[in-house]
Amino acid sequence: MVTGVIILIIGYAFGCFSTGYFVGKKNGLDIRSTGSGNIGTTNALRSLGAKAGAITFLGDLLKAFIPTLVVKFVFCPAMGYANDITYLF
């Protein structure tokens, strides 16, 4: 039960991070007030350019990938890389 709650907290914490918002702020623009008003990759690409769109995309990708790895290796360390390697072949 406690493990499930910790996993939910980790997922929620990473999901709250808004890459597009921070990329926009770094470029001196509130991305919520330009373009479609969405803070996602497409609006970052249209409003800020290709580099900002790529950074936003990678940030959004990593905010799903990192907590998945953290949960997998912290709560299921016995699995290791064996399952990941078998998917390649």
| Gyration radius, in Å | 17 Å
Mean pLDDT: 85
Let me know the largest β-sheet.
Answer: none
| Structural class determined from secondary elements | mainly alpha
- The string of secondary-structure elements, in order, is HHHHH
Count, helices: 5
Q: Give the overall silhouette.
A: elongated
List its salient traits.
about 90 residues; 5 helices
Write the topology of this structure.
Blueprint: H1 2-16, H2 19-26, H3 41-48, H4 50-75, H5 82-88
Helix pairs in contact: 1-4, 2-4, 3-4
Describe the overall structure:
By secondary structure, the chain is mostly helical. The protein has one domain (2-88). It has five helices and no strands. It has helices at residues 2-16, 19-26, 41-48, 50-75, 82-88. The longest helix has 26 residues, at 50-75. It starts with a helix and ends with a helix.
Short description:
With 89 residues, the chain is mostly helical. The chain contains 5 helices and no strands.
